[in-house]
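User: Hey, my collaborator sent me this sequence without any context and asked if I could get a structure. I don't really work with proteins. Can you help?
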Amino acid sequence: MNQCTTVALLPPPDHLIALATPGCRPEAGYVLCELGEKHDDQHAAMLWDEGGRPGSAVWVRWKGSGLARLTPLPWCPALDTRNEACELFAAHPSGHSWEVTDPTDEAVTLVLARQHPHLFPEYRGEDGS
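Assistant: No problem. I've predicted the 3D structure and written it out in structure-token form, which is a compact way to encode the shape of the chain:
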């Protein structure tokens, strides 16, 4: 499944603005939802992780064009067939991270695979192209 393409503008927190040098106000930044497309819940993007402890990852959650909120969430406990952990939060909607494909990343990878096929053997067709 493709990754959700919803973005949100995340303003800098008030405490960061208060600490900023006069005339150098921090700018807002965009976050991209990391969940699989067509999920029913709020959108989500991870901002940082404080060392992998339960509840240590800080996520931004938002719905539609509403107010975004920061919230610590535990990691999803699911493992794939290679014993790799899901990179989303526990009880996330849609598929696990290994089931979600970033369409932009995939498009860039395909271009690079055509230009440098020796670096991307997994993208070679049966005809060697």
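In plain terms: The chain is about 15% helix and 20% strand. You can pass these tokens on to your collaborator as they are.
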